[in-house]
Amino acid sequence: MCIDKTWHLAVTEEEVDWAECELQLWRAFNAFKRWQLECEKMVNDSTLSIDELAVLHVIRMNDRPKTIAEVGRLLNRPDHFNINYSITKLSERGLVRKYQPLKNKQLQLSVTEEGRRNTDQYTEARKSVLFGEFSREISAINLKGLVLGLRQIKGVYEEAHRAASIYKSVNAESG
Cα 54 to chain center, whole Å? Predict the structure, then answer.
């Protein structure tokens, strides 16, 4: 028995493989988001959004201040307005501090003591659950290869985004 994997996104074998990869990316990303939110809720009884949680952890990364542009770059997000909205909400909750070290310098962001406590608790729960209960499954994954593959896929999509934003479709020009 052969399973028909073709759909509107894919006809050739190469297209089917790529569409399957995209489907798994969607599924993995959504599972990852649900895991992060549940872990945060479990340890901090928090209702942070997935964007707020990502911004909080990136601001904490390397325990050094970041600018909004750096946060956007690290998350591969150009929507600085939405990032700033998340930062404002995190600041209102006492998790992030905004400050300007010198006049005419960019706004800096760092986690507060409450933000450090929050991210430390998340980190401990993450270690306990992922690297405790699921250590066998995790050790079976070639993470270095996966990271390299994801970087390559990101690069393909970055270039495809650039091409789509510059060039018009032949069909669009004739219509």
Answer: 6
Q: Render pLDDT for 92-122 as a digit per residue (tens, 0 to 9).
A: 999 999 998 877 788 999 999 999 999 999 9
Nearest by Cα to 116 from 148, 149, 90: 90
Answer yes or no: CATH 3.90.1200.10 is held by domain 13-125: no
Model confidence, pTM: 0.86
CA-CA distances (angstroms) from residue 152 to 22, 142, 149, 156, 158? 14, 15, 5, 6, 10
Q: Give the alpha-carbon dihedral of 127, 131, 132, 138, to 10 degrees.
A: 160
Which helix (H) or strand (E) element contains residue 78? none
Can you say how many angstroms the Cα of residue 165 is from the centroid of all Cα atoms in its chain?
Answer: 22
Q: What confidence tens digit (pLDDT) does each residue in 27-79 have? A: 999 999 999 999 999 999 999 999 999 999 999 999 999 999 999 999 999 99
* Domain residue limits, the chain: 13-125, 134-165
Q: Which residues of 51-71 are buried (b: 16+ CB within 10 A; e: fewer)?
A: bbbbbbbbbbeeeebbebebb
Residue 45: φ, ψ to 5°: 45, 45
